[in-house]
Structures are given as structure tokens and as C-alpha cells.
Amino acid sequence: MSITRKFLSLLESIDQGSGKTLATDNKRWDKRPAIVLMVVALCLLMLHYLKFNTTFYATLQIWFSQFSSNPANDLLQLRRETFFPLLSQAWWSFWHVITFICYPF
């Protein structure tokens, strides 16, 4: 039995153990738990890789390379600003809000 079939049979047994019966077809099971598990896995994966400062700096480099005539100088000027550490904290907070609140909602 493949891993996918084992996983689906586990979800089906959980669904059947909930005491809920379907009036139309007893062979069908609720796919909502599988969707929830996939969304949770996606959110945790996104949070794990996107919240760090290195991703923020790489995003800034890509942004300035696309929309600036002198990307190295503009990025250096931005990093010299006194509010720049606040931007990196805002990046961290943004990804936590997105992955813990917006996507699950």
C-alpha cells in the first residue's frame, strides 16, 4: 500500500470515527481535513523560509535591481536609514500575520 493510500485511509477512518453519516453515499468521505492539513503545512513551510532577514535582503535586492537605475547605491542608502531595522521587523511580522491569520482564515 502506498503512503498516499495509507494517508487517505487514515483520514477516512478519522472521518468515519467522528460519528457523522452521509445520507447520500457511505463511500464518500469529507475532504476538508485533508485540505486543512495541506494549508497548515503550506503556511508553516512559507513561514519557515520567508520570515528571515536574509529573505528580506534578497527581496530588496531583486526589487532594486528591477526598479532602480542604480540598485547598489539605492540599497546602500536604504540600509543606512535609521528606520531600516524596523523594516526588517515589519517583514517578520508581515509573514507571521499572513501565515497564521490570513491564509487559515
List the topology elements.
Elements: H1 3-17, H2 32-50, H3 53-67, H4 71-80, H5 84-102
Helix pairs in contact: 2-5, 3-4
Strand percentage: under 5%
Radius of gyration: 22 Å
Return the structural class.
mainly alpha
Can you summarize the main beta sheet? none
Principal-axis shape: elongated
Poorly predicted runs are: none
Ends apart, CA distance between termini: 34 Å
Number of helices: 5
- Based on DSSP secondary structure assignment, what is the total number of beta strands? 0
Mean pLDDT: 85
How do the helices and strands follow one another from N- to C-terminus?
HHHHH
Helix content: over 70%
How does this model look, in words?
This protein has 105 residues and is mostly helical. It has a domain at 45-105. It is built from 5 helices and no strands. The chain has helices at 3-17, 32-50, 53-67, 71-80, 84-102. Helix 2 (32-50) runs antiparallel to helix 5 (84-102) and helix 3 (53-67) crosses helix 4. It is elongated and about 65 Å long. The model has no long low-confidence stretch (mean pLDDT 85).
